[in-house]
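can u do me a favor
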């Protein structure tokens, strides 16, 4: 794996860590009422999206394109028209999908290409 790809994947993991640290100890209602946490978390997700966009298409095609597309389209998931950010979607993604993304990236960084998507994401 190219060093540039490894660097981007490690940056994504760092942003996942930042989101988890920001949300540590917060419940959904706490999150909804914490403007700073909402700004930070959405900013980190934008950073993840930007890093995913920088990954070469060939790499994404070889490594579960659907997953990368989901995080590239994250703004569509989070934004409710012009009304603002869908806090529930941000929360659910932060609490459930990011751990799975981290597991997947760690497997890719270890060079394991013989594992199944279901082993990381459950049955799909």
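np, heres the sequence
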């Amino acid at each position: 794996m190219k060093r540039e790809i490894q660097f981007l994947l490690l940056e994504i993991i760092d942003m996942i860590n930042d989101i988890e640290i920001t949300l540590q100890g917060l419940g959904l209602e706490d999150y909804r009422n914490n403007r700073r946490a909402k700004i930070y978390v959405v900013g980190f997700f934008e950073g993840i999206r930007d890093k995913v966009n920088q990954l070469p298409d060939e790499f994404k095609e070889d490594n579960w394109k659907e997953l990368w597309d989901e995080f590239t389209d994250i703004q569509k998931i989070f934004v409710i028209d012009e009304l603002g950010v869908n806090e529930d979607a941000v929360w659910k993604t932060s609490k459930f999908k990011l751990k799975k993304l981290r597991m997947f990236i760690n497997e890719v960084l270890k060079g394991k290409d013989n594992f199944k998507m279901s082993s990381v994401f459950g049955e799909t």
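Residues 19 and 41 are 5 Å apart (CA to CA). hope that helps!!
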